[in-house]
Amino acid sequence: MGALMLVHGVGHGAWCWRRTKADLVDRGHAVVAVDLPLTGLGDDAAAVQRALDDWGRSVMLVGHSYAGLVISKAAAERRDVQHLVYVAAMLVDGGDVYLDRMREFAAAPINAEVDLTADGNLVVRPETAVGCFYNECDRAEAEEAARRLRPTAARCLSEPPGVEPWRSIPSTYVLCLRDRAIHPDFQRWMSARAGEVVTFDTDHSPFMSMPERFVDLLDGLVDKASSGAGCV
Q1: Which residues 6+ apart lie within 8 Å of 86 measured at CB?
Q2: Cα distance between residue 232 and residue 226, in whole Å
Q3: What is the per-residue pLDDT across 21-66, written as a single tens digit (0 to 9) for each?
Q4: Domain residue ranges in the chain
Q5: How much is the pTM?
Q6: What Cα–Cα distance (Å) separates residue 206 from each residue in 58, 111, 131, 203?
Q7: Given this structure, which CATH class describes domain 3-226?
Q8: Residue 227's pLDDT is what?
Q9: Which positions ≥6 away from 140 have C-beta within 8 Å?
């Protein structure tokens, strides 16, 4: 079976992958979920690289939302990343700044709801998270997740990744049509960089709103990567 490393987005932690990880392990896969410091893109990519070094095996690297930038930066020039999976994720060219590109597209509902603190952190209020991160999820699960969110340094979203590993590493983009955090039109533009695009009719968090279908997808991608039939 395969090995997968799961990387969370803004405000989250490794906890958000709890069900995904358990379901993948039940199917025989080895899985690691990384906790990012959320202090800057370089810091977060370094955390993933350390996890890759510590694990010491070839993996499928899965990044949700902001972690699209993180896995891109972390995977550059590595030989232990077999496949990149971008889940409703930030996927831009090496020299692009995500926030600058985002302004070229229709605004997602969350854009007007995120608070910026005096010390330069982005904070998503629980009620905003329920309505924009988890709008298709079970309400009780959404509220529990929203209470666990933590601040993220604003500079995470204002640094270019500087690399484009998706040009040489097989990749899949999961485009979420009911996403209220990253507008689907912006996702369509970003997803053109991936070798394959899979569309889910759900919110920003398919690992919570469509857990079985999401795991089915990852399971199938591992099989495809293992057989050497990954998408480039």
Answers
A1: 63, 68, 71, 171, 172, 173, 174, 190, 191, 194
A2: 14
A3: 999 999 999 999 999 999 999 999 999 999 999 999 999 999 999 9
A4: 3-226
A5: 0.96
A6: 25, 20, 14, 6
A7: alpha beta
A8: 72
A9: none
